[in-house]
UniProtKB/TrEMBL annotation:
Record domain PAC: where: 90-142, 216-268, 345-398
Domain spans labelled Response regulatory: 789-899
UniProt source species: Sphingomonas xinjiangensis
Protein's UniProt keywords contain Ligase: no
UniProt-listed Pfam families: HATPase_c, HisKA, PAS, PAS_3, Response_reg
Protein name per UniProt: histidine kinase
Length: 901
């Protein structure tokens, strides 16, 4: 039995040794003298000593108990060495020194061991290495230091709580923002700074998150140090330890007062926009271009026959568009989302209801939104159901077709005005977008019709004029007409054109008539010169009117004189002396007639009457006049070629042009010089500018004056351009000569050099006929054998009497009348004339009006119109004309040609 008991004790000791040696805790067993009798493997590893080395030695000798700086640790100061068996159980921390000399912290527990009699027989000491725990504590302290430093310098308020929700840390920004002291903010002090109306909600959110240990975010008003409340956002996340234990929260508070106010303002604006769109029955749409997802409110979905709760994509949109409109609509969308084009999405299309199959009309507008790299990420816009409007348009179209026949004539006339008008005509909607424009827009703005119709008024006008344009549209929407509204429209070349508008509202559109006033605007800075030119022009016009009136009266006075003298000469009355006096009187009358014709040419009352002109004879006849006009300091030299052919010209106008050129040459030679006039035959084989290929008589007027520089030469033929100074010239001389040559089919050229002189050349086409003085008359002469009744009408009695004598001499019977009305009265009495000879300008009815009235009754009635002005205004080209004064032979020739036809 004893052997069996001893064996059981040994077995228990082995088990106990196995347990002790496998323990992670270092265990030392000391006897009653505090000398080591046992230590386990963990103790050997902790101290670096083997059991054999520690046996019989105090623990102090094994672990040294020295300070980290090497100073000895007295036994009386060492807590672990005071753990004698007779004492109570002790706990503490100590610093051990390893056998290799390094220090390490430990935690110990010393418990007395009692013997069988209950008395202490030794001590058991358990030691745990604290090196890793101390390192973690140091790292934690360092981390907390860094966190506090970072938090105190953070731009937001930061806080930390323990697991119970008690605030353990608030950063400096919190105290600066709230103005709280540390004592006020401790614990749940943040609730004291929360707005009373938000306090319960904020506390509930925090407590609920704390209980569930989840992240939270809450917005509430926080009291600022100034006493006002500002909106703040509080967000926090839970903290957990290494073992997963809940440690509390760390969070931040951000001042969002400005953002909150902006959001409230935005929400208000969005609500206003929503109400406006709702009232206007406009639907919004928003496409995420990258993903193809779409935002459609119920109103837009209804336009595509889709229920409000059904999600939609970009594919649903494209499939919902009518097949005939799909390609056009898709291209419009692609243009709006194209980074290069970025066009306005503005299109009308039909939809086929996805659920109901109904066809509807939709008008959509939108714009693409692009990021910094130019990629389109959204396309947003509006859509309006215009089915009713389209139905009205169809009904209106049918009505228009029904009425088309009745308005064809008026429409054609309107279209002619519309197409030919130089003014900008348009019909526009109250959104400023043109619906219809006339071709004058293309001419004025240099853009094609489609481009102009796709641009709104705001897109075309100058940015500085936008406000004025909006004001005008507001007035039009109120039903007011707008007159003399001026703004700038963009031209295709980048310039701006000033347009003066008249706008008249009617129904849902307004009509616009605009005139391009850019030239007037640009001419403002030249107004003073233009006014001076106008005064000169008015002076010339007044002189012309006066001269023309005097010349007309002279013609009426000369007509009976010339007629009477011509009759006396042809009858041979009187002797040789009397005939000589009559011939002299006729020559004077002819000279007076020539003078009157020149006066009419000067007054611009003489029409251009091209004829075959002997230029050499004309120049010789003008030589004396030019010499007297230019003065004694200027030598006039005339050089005319002997074989000069006749030229096609108006002799009166040519004389006037030659006189003007002579005056210009005189003014260019203030110190005197030579004026050389030459006339030669020239041929042009290759066209040179306005001078075409052909045969010409070149009339040259050259001087030795000051000449012209290049800028003056370039403007020489401009009307009213003059270098003579204000009041010394009209600036019309060269322009008149240029116009004369151009009308005749020739040209005017100028060659000039400063300090050398100027040569002006008139190139006149060679005539295919002979001059009147060189051509035998082929006209039939009546020689008193004419027959028939002539109705002679003239308001001047002496003119009428002289003409009647000539007609009676030809053999006609003459019936006189002093006005058109008197002539019609004679017709009413029953006379039937064989010929009508009438003056043109008379009180009441003109000669042309009389001729037109009589030809309605007598279509074959020959008519000869006689005029003192010899002008063509109001006289049809088909009516033969005779200019006062005239000789009997001239009247006879006209009548012969008239009767022959």
């Amino acid at each position: 039995m004893q052997n069996k008991g001893a064996g059981q004790v040994q077995s228990n000791e082995r088990r106990l040794n196995a347990i002790v040696n496998n323990s992670a805790m270092a265990i030392f067993l000391m006897d009653e003298h505090q000398q080591c009798v046992f230590m386990n493997q963990a103790a050997e590893e902790l101290t670096g000593y083997r059991l054999q080395e520690a046996m019989g030695r105090p623990l102090h000798d094994v672990v040294h108990h020295q300070h980290p700086d090497g100073r000895p640790y007295p036994i009386e100061d060492c807590p672990i060495d005071q753990a004698f068996p007779e004492r109570e159980r002790m706990r503490g921390e100590e610093v051990f020194v390893h056998k290799d000399g390094h220090f390490y912290p430990v935690a110990f527990t010393a418990s007395p061991i009692a013997g069988d009699d209950g008395q202490p027989v030794g001590t058991i000491i358990e030691v745990r290495d604290l090196t890793e725990d101390k390192a973690r504590e140091a790292a934690l302290r360092e981390s907390e230091g860094r966190f506090r430093n970072m938090a105190d310098h953070a731009p937001v308020m930061m806080w930390v709580t323990d697991p119970t929700g008690y605030s353990t840390y608030l950063n400096r920004k919190w105290y600066e923002f709230t103005g709280q002291t540390a004592a006020e903010a401790e614990g749940y002090g943040w609730l004291e700074a929360t707005h009373p109306e938000d306090r319960e909600r904020a506390e509930h959110a925090f407590m609920q998150a704390n209980a569930s240990r989840t992240s939270f975010r809450v917005e509430y008003r926080l009291r600022h140090a100034s006493g006002s409340y500002r909106w703040a956002m509080d967000a926090a996340s839970p903290r957990f330890g290494d073992e997963g234990e809940f440690l509390g929260y760390v969070g931040s508070v951000i001042d969002i007062d400005e953002r909150r106010k902006a959001e409230e303002k935005l929400a208000l604006q969005e609500e206003r926009l929503r109400l406006a769109l709702e009232v206007a029955e406009i639907g919004q749409w928003d496409v995420d271009h990258a993903s193809g997802s779409m935002f459609w409110p119920p109103r837009v979905k209804a336009m595509f026959g889709i229920s409000p709760d059904v999600p939609v994509t970009l594919e649903d949109f494209l499939n919902g568009v009518h097949p005939d409109d799909r390609e056009r609509t898709q291209k419009a969308y692609e243009s709006a989302s194209d980074p290069e084009l970025r066009a306005l999405y503005d299109v009308e299309y039909r939809t086929v209801g996805k659920e109901d199959g109904i066809i509807r009309w939709v008008a959509a507008k939108g714009r693409g939104l692009f990021d910094a790299q130019g990629a389109c990420f959204r396309v947003i816009g509006t859509a309006i159901d215009i089915t009713a409007r389209k139905a009205s348009e169809i009904r209106l179209s049918e009505l228009n077709e029904h009425l088309e026949f009745e308005v064809t004539a008026r429409t054609a006339e309107r279209n002619r005005v519309w197409e030919m008008s130089g003014d900008l005509l348009a019909i526009l909607g109250f959104d400023g977008r043109p619906k219809v424009i006339n071709p004058a827009w293309e001419i004025t703005l240099g853009r094609d019709m489609d481009t102009l119709l796709n641009l709104s008024f705001r897109e075309q006008i100058h940015p500085d004029d936008h406000k004025a344009g909006e004001d005008a549209l507001r007035r039009l929407r109120r039903g007011e007409a707008v007159e003399r509204f001026e703004h700038r429209l963009a031209h295709a070349d980048g310039s701006w054109r000033w347009i003066s508008w008249t706008f008249v509202p009617e129904g849902d559109v307004f009509y616009a008539v605009g005139r391009d006033v850019t030239p007037e605007k640009e001419a403002a800075e030249e107004l003073e010169n233009a006014q001076e030119a106008l005064r000169q022009s008015q002076k010339m016009e007044a002189m012309g009117q006066l001269t023309g009136g005097v010349a007309h009266d002279f013609n009426n006075l000369l007509t009976p004189i010339v007629g009477s003298l011509d009759l006396l000469q042809r009858k041979g009355l009187g002797g040789e002396r009397e005939q000589r006096l009559i011939e002299g009187a006729l020559q004077s009358a002819d000279r007076a007639r020539t003078l009157v014709q020149r006066l009419l040419a000067f007054a611009r009352r003489q029409p251009l009457q091209p004829a075959a002109v002997n230029v050499g004879k004309l120049v010789d006849g003008m030589a004396d006049l030019l010499a007297s006009t230019t003065g004694p300091q200027v030598r006039v030299v005339v050089d005319v070629a002997g074989d000069l052919p006749p030229a096609k010209a108006d002799p009166n106008q040519l004389e006037m042009a030659l006189l003007n050129l002579g005056v210009n040459a005189r003014d260019a030679m203030p110190q005197g010089g030579t004026l050389r006039i030459t006339a030669t035959r020239e041929s042009v084989r290759n066209a040179r500018g306005a001078l075409k290929r052909g045969h010409y008589v070149r009339l040259s007027v050259a001087d030795t004056g000051v000449g012209m520089d290049e800028s003056t030469l370039a403007r020489a033929i401009e009307p009213f351009f003059s270098t003579k100074g204000i009041g010394k010239g009209t600036g019309l001389g060269l322009s008149m000569a240029h116009g004369l040559a151009a009308q005749l089919g020739g040209a005017l050229t100028i060659h000039s050099r400063e300090g050398v002189g100027t040569n002006v050349e008139l190139w006149l086409p060679i005539s295919t006929t002979l001059p009147d003085s060189d051509r035998a008359s082929n006209a039939r002469v009546f020689t008193g054998n004419a027959r028939g009744l002539v109705l002679l009408v003239d308001d001047e009695e002496i003119v009428r009497a002289s003409t009647a004598d000539m007609l009676e001499e030809f053999g006609y019977e003459v019936q006189e009348a002093d006005s058109g009305e008197a002539a019609l009265a004679l017709i009413a009495q029953g006379i039937r004339p064989d010929l009508l000879v009438t003056d043109h300008l008379m009180p009441g009815m003109t000669g042309v009006e009389l001729a037109s009235t009589l030809r309605e009754r007598f279509p074959e009635l020959p008519v000869l119109v006689v005029s003192g002005y010899a002008e063509v205004e109001g006289i049809a080209p088909s009516l033969p004309r005779l200019t006062k004064p005239f000789r009997s032979a001239e009247l006879e020739e006209c009548l012969a040609a008239l009767m022959a036809n």
